[in-house]
Specification:
By secondary structure, this protein is of the alpha+beta class. It has 2 domains: 139 residues, no CATH class; 107 residues, no CATH class. The chain has 6 helices and 15 strands. The protein has a 6-stranded antiparallel sheet with strand order 1-2-3-4-5-13. It has a 5-stranded mixed sheet with strand order 6-11-12-10-9, with helices on one face.
């Protein structure tokens, strides 16, 4: 294939995209099944756990769908300026002057990738012991792109042509100075996703909301049907609420969280600290609601 800045190379054909897509459909079906199990069930821990399972399954569906699409779209580009790896919403750039060698991957010592003793599929991208894998084939069909600090394992369909394309361009010299790193496109490039402090704050608020909902739904069956919520100076109850009212108050926590998360995402570029404040307050609300419910129940 041609590329406006050099040559484009497809990866070796592989089943990874289809396998990942199949797993994605499995998670989607599992999430839908969990939702179906929730219908008509009373509020209790038995309702909470299917809800969490459904959320987890839908999260895996989104993640799996993204990885499947990225595997289908995986491409390598060699230009006079360097090497590009097009992976999903990200493009990895390695400047040509930074590349010290491109050799068949079996010529260098790369440890097998294992998790809990199991070998990862050859088409599973990721970092492993100093090497970054964007390959779709075994090492004896892949190339190793080496810099002074890192090794990148790729699997162009025509390995010899790939190495030759690099060798031809080295003496020509670059036309632009590339910075080594990853460029993200579209929503993947939104700076919020790379802000670790803010993201941890958001994840903390989400975790507190999940704990609040889980604790309330677990305790709900044991709550009395009528709960005093206001008292006079003598300590006598002057206002009684049905326990469903208190349940609604508790479940307002996740709604406030969703509102604050959405506003924080929208406003992040204008005011990072406002996003931090919104997400921090969302976390405080979850704690405050739980304390208030405990006080109401005595």
């Amino acid at each position: 294939m041609s590329h406006p800045y050099g040559q484009s190379f497809k990866p070796i054909k592989h089943p990874g995209g289809w396998i990942t897509l199949g797993a994605t459909l499995f998670f989607l079906a599992g999430g839908s099944w969990a939702v179906a199990q929730m219908r008509g069930r009373p509020v209790s821990a038995g309702l909470f756990w299917p809800a969490m399972a459904a959320l987890a399954a839908y999260g895996l569906t989104l993640g799996g769908g993204y990885r499947a699409l990225a595997l289908f779209r995986l491409r390598y580009f060699i230009t006079r300026n360097g090497l590009e790896v097009d992976w999903g919403a990200a493009v990895r750039r390695i400047p040509l002057p930074a590349i010290t060698a491109i050799v068949p991957a079996e010529e260098i010592d790369l440890p097998p990738r294992r998790i809990f003793g199991l070998l990862l599929p050859v088409w599973w991208p990721g970092r492993w012991r100093g090497a970054q894998y964007w390959a779709t084939a075994p090492l004896n069909q892949a190339v190793a792109v080496q810099t002074e600090t890192q090794t990148f394992v790729l699997s162009p369909a025509d390995r010899a042509a790939f190495i030759n394309a690099w060798q031809v361009r080295v003496p020509l010299g670059p036309t632009q100075d590339w910075a080594q790193g990853i460029t993200r496109r579209g929503w993947g490039g939104y700076p919020l996703w790379q802000d670790r402090v803010i993201m941890r704050l958001g994840l903390g608020a989400i975790s507190l909301a999940a704990i609040l909902v889980g604790a309330v739904m677990t305790a709900y069956p044991a709550w009395p049907a009528a709960i005093p919520i206001r008292f006079n100076a003598l300590g006598q109850a002057v206002s009684i609420a049905n326990r469903q009212y208190l349940l609604g108050v508790a479940l307002s926590g996740p709604l406030i969280l969703l509102l604050n998360l959405g506003l924080g995402i929208i406003l992040y570029k204008k005011d990072r600290m406002l996003t931090a404040l919104l997400w921090f307050m969302a976390a405080v609300v979850q704690i405050g609601l739980w304390v208030g419910i405990r006080l109401a129940l005595g």
